[in-house]
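Record pair follows.
FIRST:
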Amino acid sequence: MSRGDTTMRLSHVTVLALLASMTSGCLSHGAPEVIEPIWADDIVPIVESSCLPCHRAGGSVGLALDTRDAFVRHGNAVLVALHDGTMPPGSVDRSGDCGEYRSYKPVSRAQVETITRFLATAEETGAKDVEAVSTLPTAKGTALALALPRYTPSTQKDDHRCFVVHRPANGGDMMTALGVERLSTSSLHHLMIFSLPTASAVGHAHALDDEDEKPGYPCEGHPGVSATELLSVWTPGQGTIAFPANTGVAIGGPALLVQAHFHVEGAFDNDQPPAAEEVAVVLYTAEEVDTVMRPVPIAASGFSLPPGERRVEFSLTRPSPFAGPVVVHGVFPHMHTLGASIRLEVASEQDDEAAGQCLAQSVRWRFDWQDTAFFEEPKVLAPSTRLTLRCAWDTRGRDEVTRWGEGSLDEMCSLFLFVSVAPGA
């Protein structure tokens, strides 16, 4: 069930066939009567844990599954997506093999069977079923929609543009969630949100803006203002990135600097000019939080990937970048379109290289379903920790060497950690 196509259907005959294949051999004469699943007791818990983070009224995708009628109406498409393994989406491995995370959970085989049985009898049980579903806790705080200037990307395939956005007076100093409203864009590769903490930094950014006749200014790589600090990153596939309760990232300063990376697909292939882009950054803010986080990238660079290979691997081992102990609250892995997997391992400095424990990983990387995931229980890293970042790519679609870089057709191997200072440090 992709975001753009919710029309896939299985016939009721197919649904019943799936049901029969799952239950064949499980029932025998004298077995207890099977009680068919009902919406409120059996399906709502699955919907809440695995669907509602995105598929709800006002959620990050257009298809809401937060009522019984909606779930039944789109039920066959739900089954297709579950059996294909395309839902729930997201690149971070939530199987439990490498950490337990908040937000949506994978749907187990037993849960798929429960959904299949429910849909097979939904019409018959509808009259006596209970319409009940609750909404998961979402972003907290004051919502501020900060519109970027309307901008038409250049005819280059990759256009990095920085925009100065001033904060309204009614917002707090702590960012508790980040969302993006894509009003017309189909070419947005990422947004990086930076602070402009001083009047001098704001003035420098405006001076760069004034030098260019178009809105904003070109800023591939670093935004060009030395005092900036990274606050968060938004990429395709992410809805609203809601930080854990009572945590946030300090904004600081009167304005933000937003780096937008537009990738104009086929810009050299036809005479059609790129369309104007309309994007708004939605910040949720609070006056104060108990725990202040910051994103820190663990990244490899300078690598090159040979073409035509099913799997090309690269690893980087480095000491912890933190001078003292830190608490890791969440992770955000990032690669480009050739990515296959990414994994971050941690080990003490006394351990050998093979002794690393998995901190976070993606075993089925998809560029269009990137996500930020926060741990159920944050992890503590000692300053003596050794980090090993492992990435793999599939280059069979390329006939030339692919290099590390900022462009969409380049590749990356990075994983951001959302960290705070450990208590007592």
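SECOND:
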Amino acid sequence: MRKKIIALAVVNSLVLIYFSSTYFGNISTRDGDSSSSRSWYFHFDLNAGRSSYLKTPITSQFRGDSKKSGSYFVDLKRKINPVLKWTSDKINQAVHTASKSSPAVDDSGVYIGSDTGVMYAFDHAGKLRWSFKTDSDIRGIHGTALLDSQNLYFGNYSGFFYSLDKKEGKVNWISKVGNAVGSSAMLINEKLIISAEFDRVIEGHLVSLSPATGELIWKSEFLGEQIHSSPAYDEETNTVGVGSNNGVFRAIDVDSGLTAWKKDFFDPIKSTSAVIREAFCFSSWDKMLHCVDTLTGENKSEFDLGGRSQSSPAILGTNVLIVSSTEGFLYKINIDKEHETAKYNLKLGDDSNNYGMPSPIVIKTANEVLIVTSCNKTAVCFLNSDLKLINKIEIGGFVNGTFAVHENSIYGVALTTGLFRVEL
């Protein structure tokens, strides 16, 4: 298709070419109308000319791994004794209580997006290394960056998806994938997979991009509503599971982008599922934890959480999940027996609707297993496997989102303060 160049500008060593173009095909509304003309920016790095992408292992991703288990092993011989090491300056404006970007951490440093549209890179001591301003200073960055040995990948709420060099924050490529990206990408079989949203027609779909160039590999069918859920990968079926705001959960083939199956749960699914025992397990605004077969979508188990939830479950054992809801409790659930074996009061008071959905993580060492969750609104709680409180660290601001683990430390962000590191 011939595309007319309307404007050209040079900004920060990038050529910004503004095209009148097709926006990954037609976008159809529910009444059948469509619009094929969309604005699309292409960015080219004048310094590098091409991405520095190499086929190297992922070094950090949302919820720890492609199954989104939220479970981490820490090589400690002693008992965990958490200590707050540092907090950064405020990075979010905290205009609302939706979960913010969580840290991504590897040997090179700590990376976190802000709701003002800035991606920050810190060293492990909390010193700012560089910052990168995206085009969006109102809607910001809410997903967590994906890291490999060379680059980081993330989207913003203007619908742009970025690949930056980790060392200096230089742009490799930028692609427009929708009107908003509020979720966290994954990298499977040399394909970036991203949940993208559209606000003019209230739609969403998954897209797959090349990590080397940002070029489109495939896009899924439209999913009927916006998507806040991040994809989780099941290796055996080679599918990713993802929910949408219309309550439909889908398994989508990684190679083709085609829907393998879908199942309607009727209320918004905003959590990211965990893959356990050949099941996608996720919480929903229908106040339930659901586990469905990764191959067929058949119900395997469910549990009443007592309140709506968008908490992403953490895997504690072969059949045990940890999850929370707006009822204000953290639950330990045996998914085979469909009942709780323990619960912990997060002590959120009247703010349960806003802060009652933390996504916990599980930390395992040679000597112990601990669950880490936000609690008391401004603290991080460390619980044993029976959900008994072991330790609590006061952060001094509303703790939001989830945590990342690197070596002997966890990293998180407080809504009204900034990034923090707790040494274990």
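COMMENT: Residues 1-50 have pLDDT under 50 and may be disordered.
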